[in-house]
Amino acid sequence: MASSSLNCHNSHSLNGCSNPNSTPTKKPKLSFISDSEIESEFSHHDQIIARINNGSFGSCPQSVISAQQKFQLQFLRQPDNFYFNTLKPSILHSRSIIKSLVNAHSVDEISLVDNATTAAAIVLQNCAWGFDGGIFNKGDVAVMLHYAYGAVKKSVQAYVTRAGGEVIEVQLPFPVGSKEEIVSEFRKALEKGKENGKKRVRLAVIDHVTSMPSVVIPVKELVKICREEGVDQVFVDAAHGIGCVDVDVRDIGADFYTSNLHKWFFCPPSVAFLYCRKRGEEGNMGDLHLHHPVVSHEYGNGLAVESAWIGTRDYSAQLVVPAVLEFINRFEGGIEGIKRRNHEKVVEMGEMLVKAWGTSLGSLPEMCASMIMVGLPACLEISSESDTLKLRTHLRDHFQVEVPIYFRAPIDGEVSSITGYARISHQVYNKDDDYYRFRDAVNQLVSDGITCASLSN
Ligand SMILES: Cc1ncc(COP(=O)(O)O)c(C=O)c1O
């Protein structure tokens, strides 16, 4: 992580900072947030639910919600004043904080958009224009992981396939034993894409942390391979990026990198950043003409400015980044400390669960961040996607546990293997009891002889 980011983690003096290129200054922290203060920050959570699924929708503390509401009221009180005097500088301020946190070269490289889905549409639309404009040849290739997020796969289909591109999926093993397995499958897909030099790989879409099953992908290595193999553009989908894994966009080296801020960075929905690497000697965007798919007054003024006004709507989620920074800096080590403790705790709880159930983890601890895949007992007979939904619903309705489940089809010849994995997460509001509740719920199902076939739809 870059030193500028570290300064930012320890900073409490960002509010009111208007210079987008200034580095946040250090200020010593006297006392850290207490357990009861954390409880109070998340007191709006449904207290009867063991919430071990931060991965789907993230979480937002009370102090950030209050900051958001202030912005919403400010707009409703005097919208014209808010529009002319507050909105643009506040979005710029948020972008400048993100720029420092992720070590971007310039604030112009950082756009704020609604979510990772929107960011993917921006990048893939640009790729489609490459085919439509004759820059790419029909049949040129886009490579993505087999475990790419479903909505992003649909976007690849909608933009790239429809424009004449061919899509090649990187087959990934699961359970996964080492990052070399991923690197080797990725190389195979690129070779296939190039077809002995007959075609070109125009775009690689690489997840930083796959959603289901959840695994941390060695993005830096894969981006490097893309460069060596002449892939035109690399887009990293890090919907679970900032606050979950190390994000240093210069070090990772992709052309585009998006991370939601509403998953692991405590923003309310909906906000993500999209980093677009500057090209050319003058650091301009070179031949890149990225546009927001929603066109409004700022069309043609650069993606970051276009994205800052896509018509009348609620922009408050984009404005609370300074409040989030204040929140995370109440924790020892700021966002780095939160990330490290979440990782340690989710591994500890994952290991506790597999020991209790006699199963195994879906990946090595070093290949997970704040989420880990935990094998479920084979006797639950999870044998389809619909079984995973039935089990998840049953755990919610009967045991007040919220956790997503993954179905892994058995490989030919496998008997009594683990076919279901739970994706557990850890965030600052979690307690060990949340995981004990899950452990006991599954033990209860097992001792009652329940299988997925016996659960209602
Ligand atoms: C890898 C990945 N990409 C994209 C998304 C989409 O995120 P959003 O719904 O916030 O756009 C998700 C959501 O979980 C995801 O896990």
Automatic annotation (TrEMBL):
Bias type Low complexity, positions: 1-15
Keyword annotations: Pyridoxal phosphate
UniProt-listed InterPro entries: Aminotrans_V_dom (IPR000192), PyrdxlP-dep_Trfase (IPR015424), PyrdxlP-dep_Trfase_major (IPR015421)
Domain Aminotransferase class V: from-to ranges: 89-347
Region Disordered, residue ranges: 1-29
Keyword Ribosomal protein: no
Ranges annotated as biased composition (Polar residues): 16-25
Name used for this protein in its record: Aminotransferase class V domain-containing protein
Superkingdom of the organism of origin: Eukaryota
